[in-house]
Amino acid sequence: MDELESMLTPRQAAAALGVSYPTVKKWILAGTLKTVRTPGGHHRIRPAALAPLARGVEEAKPEKKRVQSRERFRMTSGRNQLVGTIVDLKIRGILAQVVLAIGDQRITSIITADAAREMGLRKGQTAAALMKATSVMITRP
Predict the structure, then answer these.
(1) What is the total count of domains within the chain?
(2) Is 49 found in the same domain as 11?
(3) What's the CATH number where 123 sits?
């Protein structure tokens, strides 16, 4: 396998570290994050180069309690919540696609990329899908 193929793009590195793409570009331009240039002049990053930065990013994050129950998600008035695990997360441009696994079902939500980054969403995390509708109908035979 070509060495460049095993390297990350700046956008992939940002997603792996949980920081924004502009932050990674700033680190590259400042020389904090070493890269290899492709023949086309694009930056590629060795995964090992992320380790020192990953430690710094984790240390800078405020400590949060990790409670994986429905009560953690009751900080909102909405009651139509389904708690599950993030099984897929794609951030492209200004949007993020989040897929939650709830039992053997999947729920997909499109949110802003900023919101996904702000919440620090990652695969494997517990999250809740909150449904909001203007009306709910109940029928009975």
Answers:
(1) 2
(2) yes
(3) 2.40.50.100
C-alpha 33/C-alpha 48 separation (Å) is: 11
- The pLDDT value recorded for residue 133 is 74
Domain of residue 121: give its range: 70-130
- Residue 66 clears pLDDT 70, i.e. is over it: no
Pair 8, 53: CB distance under 8 Å: no
Residue 77: pLDDT over 80: no
| Residue-wise DSSP of 67-125 | --SGGGG-SSS---EEEEEEEEEEEETTEEEEEEEETTEEEEEEEEHHHHHHHT--TT-
Instruction: Quote the percentage of the chain above a pLDDT of 90.
Output: 26
Question: What integer pLDDT is reported at residue 95 of this predicted model?
Answer: 95
**Residue 66 φ then ψ, to 5°:** -105, 95
For residues 90 and 113, give the distance between their C-alpha atoms in angstroms, rounded to a whole number.
9
Three-state DSSP state, 57: helix
54 and 82 part of one domain: no
Q: Rounded mean pLDDT of 109-135?
A: 88
